[in-house]
Amino acid sequence: MSTLTASPATRSRTPQAAPAGRVTFLHLLNSEWIKLVTLRSTWWTLGSTVVVMVLFALMMAAANGFDAGPDGPPPTPGASVVTFGYIFAQVSVGVLGALIVTGEYSTGMIRSTIAAAPGRTGVMLAKASVLAVVTFVTGVVGVLLSYLATAGMLGDGVADLGDGETWRIFLGAGGYLALIALFAFALGIIIRNGAATIAAILGVTLLLTILVSILGFSLEWLGNIAPYLPAAAGAQIMTPTMDAASAAQMGFTVSPTPWEGFAILAGYVAITLGIGLTLLKKRDV
Hints:
Elements: H1 25-37, H2 40-63, H3 78-82, H4 86-107, H5 109-116, H6 121-154, H7 164-191, H8 194-215, H9 220-225, H10 230-234, H11 244-250, H12 258-282
Helix pairs in contact: 1-6, 2-4, 2-6, 4-6, 4-7, 4-8, 6-7, 7-8, 7-12
């Protein structure tokens, strides 16, 4: 007589879904770094920024002291000659800062970016961090190359690398360009259109400063606020320290101080970026 033996119940072997990997801020930084450096336009923009800084430093060095005389203005300080190209470099880094975010809106890639990082704020801060580092380094490299290119032309007027103020001006140029790029980036989050963002950042950094400075000669209250506009305030970080008597003789104003001016520009950037991130979380992509 055979005995029936119950076979053990077959255990279900349905495969378990692998847990989704958590997107960390380091992952976002790496992703945004790859996005930025793999674009050919990035290298063209950064390379042209450095070239422009060197060329305009050479032009300033050639003209430095040309009109100097017993009754003429003193020669421009060597550190200011070296950083003179920042006026034109801010245009290219502003364009880069605008396009790094508006380019994704124009191509539709922003949808994939937000899908990968639904929190939205983290990915934008990663973009901003990469942009700030790249533009800061580019600015400092441009200044150092300008120093090497103009050292022989300036002679005794060359900037003293042993002076702390020289390094404040040199590194300040990189910091200023980084903040201008971030300002354009923040405006890009708000406006979401490349051409309009570029027009806005150029208007703020160039047109507004020039217009208020000109009108300030006839309208005293405009003249009083001119040093506190974003570009004018931030540029103070590249201004050599001078005493009140020398400033008055040259027609300059000694307020805000270099670090105060830099902080004012940083404040403009922080407020604009805060507005942009707030709108980013509320808007549809």
